[in-house]
Amino acid sequence: MSSIPKIVILGAGYGGILTAQRLQKELNYNEADVTLVNRHDYHYITTHLHMPAAGTDSIENTRVSISKLIDEFKIDLVKSSVQEIRLHDKKVILEDGTLSYDYLIIALGGDPETFGIPGLAEHAMSIRSINSVRLIRSHIEHQFALYKNERRPQERINFVVGGAGFSGIEFVAELADRIPKLCREYDVDPALVNIYNIEAAPTALPGFAPELVDYAMETLKKKGVTFKLGTAIKECTPHGVILSTGEEIRSNTVVWTGGIRGNRLVESAGFETMRGRVKVDEYLRAPGHDNIYIIGDNSLIFNGERPYPPTAQMAMQQGVCCAQNIVATIRGKVLRKFEYQHKGTVASLGKGQGIGVVGNKTYQGWKAAQLKKLVDLRYLYVIGGIMLVLKKGRFL
Amino acid sequence: MSSIPKIVILGAGYGGILTAQRLQKELNYNEADVTLVNRHDYHYITTHLHMPAAGTDSIENTRVSISKLIDEFKIDLVKSSVQEIRLHDKKVILEDGTLSYDYLIIALGGDPETFGIPGLAEHAMSIRSINSVRLIRSHIEHQFALYKNERRPQERINFVVGGAGFSGIEFVAELADRIPKLCREYDVDPALVNIYNIEAAPTALPGFAPELVDYAMETLKKKGVTFKLGTAIKECTPHGVILSTGEEIRSNTVVWTGGIRGNRLVESAGFETMRGRVKVDEYLRAPGHDNIYIIGDNSLIFNGERPYPPTAQMAMQQGVCCAQNIVATIRGKVLRKFEYQHKGTVASLGKGQGIGVVGNKTYQGWKAAQLKKLVDLRYLYVIGGIMLVLKKGRFL
Questions:
Q1: Which one of 3.30.420.40, 1.10.760.10, 3.50.50.60, 3.40.50.740 gives the CATH number of domain B120-256?
Q2: Contact between A149 and B135 using a beta-carbon 8 Å cutoff
Q3: What is the predicted ipTM?
Q4: pLDDT digit string (tens) for A63-91?
Q5: Which of A134, A137, A149 has the CB atom closest to B148's CB atom?
Q6: A6-112+261-343: which CATH number, 3.30.365.10, 3.30.300.30, 3.50.50.100, 1.20.140.10?
Q7: What architecture (CATH level 2) is domain A120-258?
Q8: Inter-CA distances, A298 with A48, A269, B256, Å
Q9: DSSP-assigned states of every residue in A168-198
């Protein structure tokens, strides 16, 4: 047994990868053992998942092998699934082993929030992983094939997207771009296909200025999207959705993007949570556990009265800060308080279209789409340098 | 009403298209009205369907718009589905109308022969049309997506092909070529995937010399195909197949290639049939109906004691002969007796592999694969000239 501190990072998403990379950079030889645990041997770019889900970009442009992002001489990589976090034993139970830690970083990502809507967990798909988006893509294409081999049931070519937040809108836009291609491939009249975007809140894209929201909705309506705002999904069945208005939309394809809650592993570890999230201290530590950092979807940080929404931007900044604080703790130095720097928000609206806010400037259309690509390329640069940008970047 | 004879061709497969093209060429202006009825507005190349079914070639390389193959100033094209042939009224009932005829060419193609095996019609797919092969392709891919989102059930990645005749072997070969690509796309270990080819007869590929059959089987075994010859499918269930040995193979994908019988429309029209086929006279006419020609899968022609198997080659030659005989009848000339000219047989075994017999020469491997491509290119040339060869031909 080594006497040097053991650092275990759970999850290699935005937060976990940034933590690992920063620790790798800052720690000296033999200063700590670092282990990164992830279910897959790849890191995926969650904000890009809406494209392979719709089938408008490849899976390979959406993920990177973790061994390309970290130095396995400095960090141990364990491909496994976390089953339990045992705080009193300082142990993590994996599906095929256990790991003990001195410092733990919980960067596991969230679970879909279904708000208790009956049938949603059973019958809807969600955009949450490489596996889930491959399923959505292949499911959608399969509906067209089935439609032509059955008695042309309308529910095969009605597509329902629940949620008109960031992910819902970005996915719906890609789907609207993809449908005409599927119609050509399967000889289906595009006029027969329906895309419904259902949102319980009175407006789409909360957080954007009303004129940008209007622009986004007009753009998507022109692409054939039917919006039902101020309308909740009351129930999801094997045959579609029943809305709060009583209307039923028959559909074999319901994609739920209505939100993210904290990971159930965090709740069951015994932390005090609000919707599965832990209100961390100013250094990103779990209350009462100075050796445990919680970042990303499982952390709750308040901006005045309201919590910040969990975003990639937030998780990345938390990753850097928590790595610095762990190094500082090991060295007996002063910790840094986390302060979120909001750099802007850009939403894609499909090919060549988008909306964005950077500082106090707003963008729409082609410029916003370019900006979105720049944000994506910058991320690839941050985690993998220029080689990764050239390999996975979308420039056109 | 015109007083010139009305010729109606049912089906635009190999036989129907060749008949239509030859009538178009030989008939003078106002000598007859010709109508070609087909369910789709495209002709498809049945002998090529195994490739898009496996996903190794595109749908577009497998079909041609009928309007590119015939002159619509000379031949009327009706896109409709035949519901009934009323011999005593000399009428064809379509799903959206009726057509009366003086001469009828039945070139409708066959139905899959399931030999009464329970569950096969309900749970197996068959390679019979553009729609059916798009379904097979998307179904197979979807199994991989589902596999990764479920608890890795083996039946998702067990593939069963019933029948080791021409179509079964050609499909199994393409599937074996396709699986490694799907495994890469969906992160599935290829060693976990099984392809079973089940055949009730004691050998595969009846009609080929034993050494070619051995070569074909060795080639496919190397690609990972498991053969079960001399083994019948006793039952097909929603979960797989039960074999005559009692063994159950769990599989969500059963593709049945076990044979073709005559079209049910021919039986219900009142013709005397054997397995749905009509033994036509030496001029290709239905017995007792001098104005009705039956060609392709619905005709039965004996080669000594045994009937010729229904092939593209046979249907094409019949199409030419029946067109000539109809023209001769209209002109009061002598009819030509049909004599089948066997030009050879080539079977593809996947990329760069095949077996073939032309005259008394046999071919295997790369040469046979080239020969197969030549046969395909020649067909495109026959029906569409050099432009179609350039547009749809596969040269590599």
A1: 3.50.50.60
A2: yes
A3: 0.92
A4: 999 999 999 999 999 999 999 999 999 99
A5: A134
A6: 3.50.50.100
A7: 3-Layer(bba) Sandwich (3.50)
A8: 20, 12, 50
A9: HHHHHHHHHHHHHHHHHHHT--GGG-EEEEE
